[in-house]
Write a structure and sequence with these properties.
By secondary structure, this protein is α/β, with parallel strands linked by helices. Helix content is about 30%, strand content about 20%. It contains four helices and nine strands, in the order ααββββββββαβα. It has a five-stranded mixed sheet. A four-stranded mixed sheet has the order 1-4-8-7. Helix 1 packs antiparallel against helix 2. The longest helix is centred in the N-terminal third of the chain and has 23 residues, at about 1-25. The radius of gyration is 24 Å and the shape is elongated. The termini are far apart.
Amino acid sequence: MKNKWILLIGLLAFCAFFISSIVRESPLLLYIASSIPIFIVPFLPDLKTSQRLHPQRKGVDIVKFGGSAGKPDWLVVSFKPGTVYWTRKKTLVISYEDAPFVETVPTDDYTAALTVLKYDLRVRPKSGRISVSLANLSERVAGLPYTVNEVNRLVIPLGDATELEPANPPASVASRSVELQA
């Protein structure tokens, strides 16, 4: 709440200096008004709509699990509670291309796992990344005995992710230098 008050005071000061520079026709007041946004910017809210989980990040473990003939069926993302911002971000982007394949997934005393369903996933155009809708996961946790802040593991079926990716991307109709005529 403190940031909202600082932002509001900064906007009011900007408006006051800007209007007074027009009324008094003073370039000095206009210069002062134009410098105020520089001090407002650090207090603006973060507008990024996604957050990324990398295997190199401390407290994050991404592994491929199960499957027959060496092909993994599941992507298991383990993280410390508090790593994922459930309410501030819309999507969680997970890089799984370099994740190691394991036979068993280690567990600890308290593991609250959440399975990601097909409609929660969005495959990124760039291969090796999956986007998970955090809003959908938060809605599903409402009926469970734990909260989203206690979740420390996501289980993602890789079969669903590969089905969402087009096997052969459609070829472009025309290049930029070619004109089509009717």
